[in-house]
């Protein structure tokens, strides 16, 4: 099996190293990750400039590649031909903070796995709930074990087309694994306006770290109880229950386009 590893924290991240080492137990590993931190970058496709790739060396001495593109760019580069081998699985992480609820739309970690799904390759995003331990050295060993367990399952069982897994792992004691759905994040963002030395205003979007509503069955609820949260996501964002409501619009304004042009000119 050929497994591709990336992240959004940069190629020097210890979480990336732990993930790459865990994946080597399952197959041949290739690494291409950003050359800087892209946390919160969302799903990026860089089209306005060329992307560079250069060799890098991970902390334990293994060869990797790094790019000045976003995490999703790294996946696209790998799957579109930079790596000549066929990739069987894309894994992203291990992010040191969780990606829960609406975080998935912001997260470079998760959107790297989304990019894999777009190109028909299974994707898994891994995040660790160590937000409170950012000033301490993080032990990625337990989360690496979990990442191997989940990846082995996906390689053996597969995933439906268009589906990725968003995996969030407790930082401490792990009680087990639960299948979950997205919970409700509570954001406390604030806008901080400052003045630069030339008298021009500039802005920081900051505030306290987000929390969430720990409902049973959600990623937030399971993580708060010490369980690994595994949330299957798909890229079809259609709200199917709302389609009949919008159907009223279709029926009310279902007329040929030439009639609309006539209405504009007043000839109808």
What does this structure look like?
The protein is of the alpha/beta class. The chain has one domain (2-186, 212-240): Survival protein SurE-like phosphatase/nucleotidase (Stationary-phase Survival Protein Sure Homolog, Chain: A), CATH 3.40.1210.10. Helices cover 29% and strands 30% of the residues. The protein has helices at 14-23, 71-82, 103-106, 108-118, 141-157, 219-224, 243-252, 257-265, and strands at 2-6, 28-34, 53-57, 63-67, 89-95, 123-129, 163-170, 176-179, 184-195, 201-213, 227-234. A nine-stranded mixed sheet has the order 3-4-2-1-5-6-7-11-8, with helices on both faces. The longest helix has 17 residues, at 141-157. The mean pLDDT is 91.
């Amino acid at each position: 099996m050929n497994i591709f590893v990336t992240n959004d924290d940069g190629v020097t991240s210890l979480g990336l190293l732990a993930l790459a080492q865990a994946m080597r137990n399952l197959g041949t590993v290739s690494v291409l990750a950003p050359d800087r931190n892209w946390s919160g970058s969302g799903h990026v496709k860089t089209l306005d400039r060329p992307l560079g790739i250069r060799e890098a060396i991970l902390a334990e001495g293994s060869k990797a590649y790094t790019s000045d593109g976003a995490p999703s760019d790294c996946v696209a580069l790998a799957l579109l031909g930079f790596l000549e081998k066929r990739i069987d699985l894309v894994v992203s992480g291990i992010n040191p903070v969780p990606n829960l609820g609406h975080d998935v739309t912001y997260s470079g970690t998760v959107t790297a796995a989304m990019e894999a799904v777009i190109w028909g390759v299974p994707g898994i995003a891994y995040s660790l709930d160590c937000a409170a331990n950012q000033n301490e050295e993080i032990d990625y060993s337990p989360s690496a074990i979990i990442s191997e367990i989940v990846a082995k399952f996906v390689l053996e069982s597969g995933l439906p087309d268009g589906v990725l897994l968003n995996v969030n792992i407790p930082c401490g004691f792990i009680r087990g694994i639960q299948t979950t759905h997205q919970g409700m994040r509570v954001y406390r963002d604030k806008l901080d306006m400052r003045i630069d030395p030339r008298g021009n205003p500039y802005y920081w979007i900051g505030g306290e770290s987000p929390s969430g509503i720990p409902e049973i069955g959600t990623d937030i609820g399971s993580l708060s109880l010490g369980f690994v949260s595994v949330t299957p996501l798909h890229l079809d964002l259609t709200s199917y229950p709302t389609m009949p409501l919008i159907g009223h619009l279709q029926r009310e304004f279902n007329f040929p386009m030439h009639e609309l042009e006539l209405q504009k000119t007043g000839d109808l």
